[in-house]
């Protein structure tokens, strides 16, 4: 009887437990595999093709097709950084204003209309954003500033719309986590709503807002197609806001299929993918640091 | 007096910004629908694409997108649910759990193109499959697994613990409690999360370019299932609707590429709208069906605590 009970327990507990533990471990294994695969491939341009790390990270010359090929990734790193930073700069004030609006100005309108609107904005696929950029934004820019329209500025604007919901939702969570008594105390001291928001609530929610900004930055950095469709993809450093340039993700989407596996050019592209991976690690590190400082 | 004025001005500014964002969405939908008007015509929805002439449809791409969605959900929901259960019920606090959380965080922040390139190495080259639908599905699974895991974990943790304790006290094992008691109670939340994830899966493109490919063989239901022409064969290249828009934009040579792209965008946006509405309806309906007045009991509990 005891034996049977044991078997029954084994069947009704350990099999399921083993299955879900496997699922948990699968995440760990996959993550490690991704890092190992990308790094293993990305490091080949240094080990096999003899490209120096210094050239890759500090040279602005990207001429993989030349007889004297050059593999400098600065243009792409700069392009990605500029477009993401620009998007965050443009998006953060709007996102913060929306978060404040949802929490303090008109929660009713916020939850009935703004939240569903933001959910839909999240849901729009990135190619559709790219398509909207090409259809609405590029002609608009062309009419106002002349030229081709495909530019850093176009990339910034498209990305800023894409990361708006991310920053808003995290900033909104941060704002709503501020104890209500703070607001009451501020009102009690005779402040207006704007004074309470700007001097008490927002500073108190600083950590969460920064987390939202970094997450938005990370999303902007990793976005590929929408940016690639509007930024122009010219391999040179941008001379201004209204000049075309290229990003890490853009060059990867375009060139990976055009190069032959194992060549120096192809390996250099894998190194760009590895750089992209490291940058996303850096963002995770940053978010963890912000979280830790916030706890103190 | 100045501070009162400032307050009023800023309140106005907030209203303007909120209206601006709503207006932006309206503008997007208006543009997409007006440019892609007529996307519901059967000729377009089910027609074969043409590489050279105007008037082609997106039939194969639409089938690929939907089939990709189904396959991806079949793979990623069980895995996400399993991982969520593990984290919520079985994992012990400590280094291992911290490491798993770090992995989830890492996975969640991977750029989709990097996941696509990993797919190129792992599911295209290493396995020798070439560009396949299943490779694409596995790549999007990687992208969505962290999100699904989090949804399932939170849904399970949100189930009131007295239900669980009651079941355990009646002699059920933890697993039995989980399957018969906790999961049904957590289902509404999980369903909502899964439907929203489905919207994201449907819209993914960057991870698919190098895994599912940019082409589709001529599909034919009469073909053998093992042949790449059969629509249900997962080991065939499968260009989805999203990838199709991107391809039309960057290298389209069809004379009506612009119109096809606009109509495809309209289909995508309609699907997104549908998923959002479905998620809302499902959460309301399921909640009512499974848990009755769950919200009330929750409030009571927090009062008691």
UniProtKB/TrEMBL annotation, chain A:
One of its GO terms (biological process) is phosphate ion transport. Keywords: Cell membrane, Membrane, Phosphate transport, Transmembrane, Transmembrane helix, Transport. It is found in: Cell membrane. The keyword Transport applies. Its main location: membrane. The keyword Transferase does not apply. One of its GO terms (cellular component) is plasma membrane. One of its GO terms (molecular function) is phosphate transmembrane transporter activity. Pfam families: BPD_transp_1. It is a multi-pass membrane protein. InterPro entries: MetI-like (IPR000515), MetI-like_sf (IPR035906), Phosphate_PstC (IPR011864), Phosphate_Transport_Permease (IPR051124). The chain crosses the membrane at residues 20-43, 72-105, 117-138, 144-164, 268-287. PROSITE patterns: ABC_TM1. Residues 77-287 form the ABC transmembrane type-1 domain. It comes from the Bacteria. Part of the binding-protein-dependent transport system for phosphate; probably responsible for the translocation of the substrate across the membrane. Belongs to the binding-protein-dependent transport system permease family. CysTW subfamily. This is Phosphate transport system permease protein. It comes from Parageobacillus thermoglucosidasius. The gene is pstC.
TrEMBL record, chain B:
InterPro entries: MetI-like (IPR000515), MetI-like_sf (IPR035906), Phosphate_PstA (IPR005672). Residues 62-279 form the ABC transmembrane type-1 domain. PROSITE patterns: ABC_TM1. The keyword Transport applies. Keywords: Cell membrane, Membrane, Transmembrane, Transmembrane helix, Transport. The chain crosses the membrane at residues 12-33, 66-87, 99-123, 129-148, 190-210, 265-291. GO terms for biological process: phosphate ion transmembrane transport. It is found in: Cell membrane. Its main location: membrane. One of its GO terms (molecular function) is phosphate transmembrane transporter activity. It is a multi-pass membrane protein. Belongs to the binding-protein-dependent transport system permease family. CysTW subfamily. This is Phosphate transport system permease protein PstA. The lineage of its organism: Bacteria, Bacillati, Bacillota, Bacilli, Bacillales.
């Amino acid at each position: 009887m005891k034996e049977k009970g044991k078997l029954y327990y084994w069947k009704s507990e350990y099999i399921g437990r083993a299955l879900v533990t496997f699922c948990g471990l699968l995440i760990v294994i996959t993550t490690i595999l991704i890092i190992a695969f990308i790094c293993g491939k990305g490091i080949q341009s240094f080990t096999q093709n003899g490209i120096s790390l210094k050239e890759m990270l500090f040279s602005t010359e990207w001429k993989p097709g030349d007889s004297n090929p050059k593999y400098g990734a600065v243009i792409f790193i700069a392009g990605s950084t500029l477009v993401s930073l620009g998007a965050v700069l443009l998006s953060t004030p709007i996102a913060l204003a929306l978060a404040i609006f949802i929490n303090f100005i008109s929660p009713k309108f916020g939850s009935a209309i703004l939240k569903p609107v933001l959910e839909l904005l999240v849901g729009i696929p990135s190619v559709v954003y790219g398509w909207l950029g090409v259809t609405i934004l590029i002609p608009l820019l062309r009419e106002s500033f002349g030229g081709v329209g495909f530019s850093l500025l176009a990339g910034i604007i498209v990305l800023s719309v894409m990361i708006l919901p991310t920053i808003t939702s995290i900033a909104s969570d941060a704002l709503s986590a501020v104890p209500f008594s703070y607001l009451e105390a501020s009102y009690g001291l005779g402040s207006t709503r704007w004074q309470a928001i700007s001097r008490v609530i927002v500073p108190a929610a600083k950590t969460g807002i920064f987390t939202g900004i970094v997450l938005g930055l990370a999303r902007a950095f990793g976005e590929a197609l929408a940016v690639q469709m509007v930024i122009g993809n010219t391999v040179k450093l941008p001379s201004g806001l209204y000049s075309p340039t290229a990003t890490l993700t853009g060059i990867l989407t375009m060139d990976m299929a055009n190069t032959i596996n194992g060549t120096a050019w192809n390996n250099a592209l894998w190194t760009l993918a590895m750089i992209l991976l490291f940058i996303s690690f850096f963002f995770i590190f940053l978010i963890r640091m912000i979280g830790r400082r916030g706890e103190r | 007096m100045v501070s009162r004025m400032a307050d009023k001005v800023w309140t106005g500014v907030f209203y303007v910004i909120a209206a601006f964002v709503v207006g932006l969405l309206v503008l997007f939908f208006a543009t997409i629908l007006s440019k892609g008007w007529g996307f519901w015509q059967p000729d377009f929805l089910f027609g074969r694409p043409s590489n050279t002439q105007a008037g082609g449809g997106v039939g194969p791409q639409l089938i690929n997108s939907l089939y990709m969605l189904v396959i991806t959900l079949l793979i990623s929901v069980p895995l996400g649910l399993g991982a969520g259960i593990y984290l919520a019920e079985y994992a012990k606090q400590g280094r291992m759990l911290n490491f798993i959380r770090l992995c989830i965080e890492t996975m969640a922040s991977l750029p989709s193109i990097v996941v696509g390139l990993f797919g190129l190495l792992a599911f295209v080259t290493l396995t020798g499959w070439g560009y396949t639908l299943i490779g694409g599905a596995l790549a999007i699974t990687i992208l969505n697994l962290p999100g699904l895991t989090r949804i399932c974990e939170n849904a399970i943790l949100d189930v009131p613990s007295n239900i669980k304790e009651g079941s355990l006290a009646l002699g059920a094992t933890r697993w039995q409690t989980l399957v018969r008691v906790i999961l049904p109670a957590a289902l509404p939340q999980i369903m909502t999360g899964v439907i929203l994830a489905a919207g994201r899966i449907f819209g993914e493109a960057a991870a698919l370019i190098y895994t599912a490919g940019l082409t589709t063989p001529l599909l034919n239901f009469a073909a053998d299932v093992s042949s790449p022409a059969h629509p249900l064969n997962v080991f065939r290249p499968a260009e989805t609707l999203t990838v199709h828009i991107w391809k039309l934009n960057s290298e389209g040579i069809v004379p009506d590429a612009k119109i096809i792209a606009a109509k495809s965008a309209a289909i995508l946006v309609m699907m997104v709208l549908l998923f959002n509405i479905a998620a809302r309806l499902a959460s309301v309906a399921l909640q009512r069906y499974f848990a009755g007045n769950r919200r009330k009991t929750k409030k009571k509990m927090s009062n008691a605590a």
